[in-house]
Amino acid sequence: MKKFLVLVFSLSLFLGLNGCGNSANDPEKVAISFFQNLANDKVDLAIELLDFSELKDDEAKMAKDKMRYIFSGAAQELKKEGKDLKKVVSKGVKYSDDKKKATVTLAISEDETEDVELVKVNKEWKIVLR
Predict the structure, then answer these.
(1) Exposed/middle/buried for 126, CB within 10 Å: 0-12, 13-18, 19+?
(2) Residue-number span of the structural domain to which 120 is assigned
(3) How many CA atoms lie within 13 A of 103 on its CB side?
(4) When comparing pLDDT for 24 and 41, which is higher?
(5) pTM for this prediction
(6) Nearest CA among 118, 68, 126 for reference residue 93
(7) What does the pLDDT look like over 43-82, one tens digit per residue?
(8) Shortest CA distance to 48 belongs to which of 129, 130, 109, 127?
(9) Per-residue b/e over 96-116, b at no fewer than 16 CB within 10 Å?
(10) What local confidence, expressed as pLDDT, does residue 77 receive?
């Protein structure tokens, strides 16, 4: 029984880590996940998809706190405007020549698109806020 539990735990851990790594390596998935996390009020998960690599630790913490404040309740406000972030889909991705930057075009609604800029940081795609 103990061996079985160790096997189940190991398999769960492997699948969980493998799944996390895959989405971070796909700029379209990262961009869509960002909006879906906001739509589901998972603000901290959305913030983890942002690029803070050029900030010092204390600056990054302050920026994350500000983002947490800004994003809280964002989904409800956008729903009032008729935008359902749970239905965001990718319309394509364009990579820079060196494949370290990408721009993902997302359909936010039937008549609105949003270009999301991403940069590769430590082998993971992160959203660039400007």
Answers:
(1) buried
(2) 2-127
(3) 7
(4) 41
(5) 0.76
(6) 118
(7) 999 999 999 999 999 999 999 999 998 888 776 787 777 7
(8) 127
(9) eeeeebbbbbbebeeeeeeeb
(10) 80
Q: pLDDT tens digit string along 72-96?
A: 877 678 777 777 777 899 999 999 9
Residue 53 CB neighbours (<10 A):
11
Number of domains in the chain: 1
Burial 8-25 (b: 16+ CB within 10 A, else e): eeeeeeeeeeeeeeeebe
CATH code of 35's domain: 3.10.450.50
Which of 34-38, 94-98, 108-112, 116-120 comes out lowest in average pLDDT? 108-112
